Amino acid sequence: MMKIITFKSRSVPVYYTNEQAASVEQLHHKLREMELNFDFRKKWKRISKVEVVREVAIFQYSDGTKLYLEVS
Q1: What 3-state class would DSSP assign to 9?
Q2: 2-7 and 66-70 as β-strands: parallel, antiparallel, unpaired?
Q3: What is the pTM of this model?
Q4: Rg for the chain (alpha carbons), in Å?
Q5: Is 5 exposed, middle or buried (0-12, 13-18, 19+ CB in 10 A)?
């Protein structure tokens, strides 16, 4: 499944399976926590998509590199 998530006026697609719907909600809460983290906000500008696997959000940059974030 796919869902669009918006953070700091930038929307990114989030890919997940039906079993991971709760983790996507946790991702929303984690992004709110990271709102004041300047380093993460700079990184968010280059994110092209997010994939949620179990309790980990995998942020993929446009150049193919990845950032892993535990959402639980």
Answers
A1: coil
A2: unpaired
A3: 0.88
A4: 11
A5: middle
- Domain count across the chain: 1
Beta-sheet strand order (sheet of 66-70)? 2-7, 10-15, 47-53, 56-61, 66-70
CA dist 66 and 1 (Å) reads 20
pLDDT confidence bin for 72, thresholds 50/70/90: confident
51 backbone dihedrals φ, ψ, rounded to 5°: -125, 130
CA atoms of 41 and 3, how far apart (whole Å): 20
Give the DSSP letter string of 11-70. Answer: EEEEE--GGGHHHHHHHHHHHHHGGG-HHHHHHHTTEEEEEEETTEEEEEETTS-EEEEE
Q: Which domain holds residue 38?
A: 1-68
Per residue in 26-63, pLDDT (tens digit) is 999 999 999 999 999 999 999 999 999 989 999 999 99
